[in-house]
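Input record (one chain):
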Amino acid sequence: MRNLLRDSIKAISGMRYVHIDGDAVFTLGSIGVEKAMKVLLGCKAVEEEGAWPSKDVLKAWGHDVEELNTRVLAAIDDGLDQATATRYVGQVPWSGVTADSFVGVVRR
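The corresponding structure, as predicted from the sequence alone:
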């Protein structure tokens, strides 16, 4: 996962022609983001259920990054009352963060 994201940033930096290299480069990044989100959701499952999600559950989460983002934001909301860094958490405007607002920033 880390290498996918690192390599994606490196590939974006070195990309000369978006119309030629864009699909491959951005696919690399989206796979890294998808895996990172699934790791976060898996950690939540371990915390709540005591075990890593089954392969069927991981597959059921799918590949839609916007849907995964919605799930991750819901997981954050669910865990805010358990936060130990409450001073920091209180400074983050979680209530204003939605999948649409996040994707809107990315699309700009």
